[in-house]
Automatic annotation (TrEMBL):
It comes from the Eukaryota. This is Mitochondrial K+-H+ exchange-related-domain-containing protein. The lineage of its organism: Eukaryota, Fungi, Dikarya, Basidiomycota, Agaricomycotina. GO terms for biological process: potassium ion transport; proton transmembrane transport. Residues 55-70 have a biased composition (Gly residues). The chain crosses the membrane at residues 196-225. InterPro entries: Mit_KHE1. The keyword Membrane applies. It comes from Amanita thiersii Skay4041.
Amino acid sequence: MRRLSIIAIPLTRPLAHARSKRILTYYQFQISHPPLAIPPFSTTLQQQQQEKGGWQSGGRGEGRKGASGGGLFARWMPEGGVVRWASAKAAETWAGFGKQEKGWKVCRSLYQTGERLVDRMDFEELALKSIDPSLGPRVTVATGSGKRVRGEGGEEKGTRGQIPLVYPPSISSGSETLRELRALVSYRLPKHRKGFYLWMMVAPFTAPFMIVPVIPNIPFFFCVWRSWSHYRAYKASQYIDTLLEHGSIIPEESPTLDAVYRDAQHHAPQKGQQLQEDEGDHQSHQRQHAVLLTREAVPSIVGLFSLKKSAEADVYRAVEQARLRVESGRTEL
């Protein structure tokens, strides 16, 4: 059974004179897959002989039934489903555009432009849309008709499945981390729902670009991509909200993550001293929050939780966006 864990990575903390006491946090959602059980060679050989005998001997009907029942088709189905495989394939193709040093320069220019657009997307959206609710644990929900949603493997989960919310105890408490996650979901649900419908309605107006020869209709694909991104973030917000309502998310202290923050503060004494001066200066009210992490701390977090390359890029974006938001003096981050 797959296991979902949530890693809370605080990026900023409010100063004494800040109007908003929120802790800007990046949430990394990780779904761990169980190791594949490789059957013994003898068992595999026996299965192959049975399948071969089912077709060649008098069991033709039985063999056809197994094939039509999805056994042969399921064997060639990608793990996680076709949609997940197509998304991974598209991401791999997109990354290939950036590695092309020679050849069609349009691909590399398009890749660089797209990466700049992704850098400007809210890191909260990037984190949410990385969740695939169909792969995570499910909760039991009672409906008016008496139906119940069952968990993986046909077992009713209810609120028994606990999902750890890992956080650094020296930065925030468990209840505070859980409250910040609830606030994030409450804010993101209507935002991504609106963004999904907005970009979907804008997409038809890009139809005139289809008459341009050779060049693909990039505005149309951009609108569809933004709508799809908002939709995934919206469904993920719904999923996390359901888990929160059922009490399935449990805060869990992480001393190792806490050590990363202590190490970051130890190696940046000048910045820490500057943060204390900013906090004690009551005349300067422009900066409302203080930055907790820099880019130098990201490799330690990536190595600690074995994050993928895509997640590593999102953490870098989150750290950079947090710095820009703090420097802009925004009250609400």
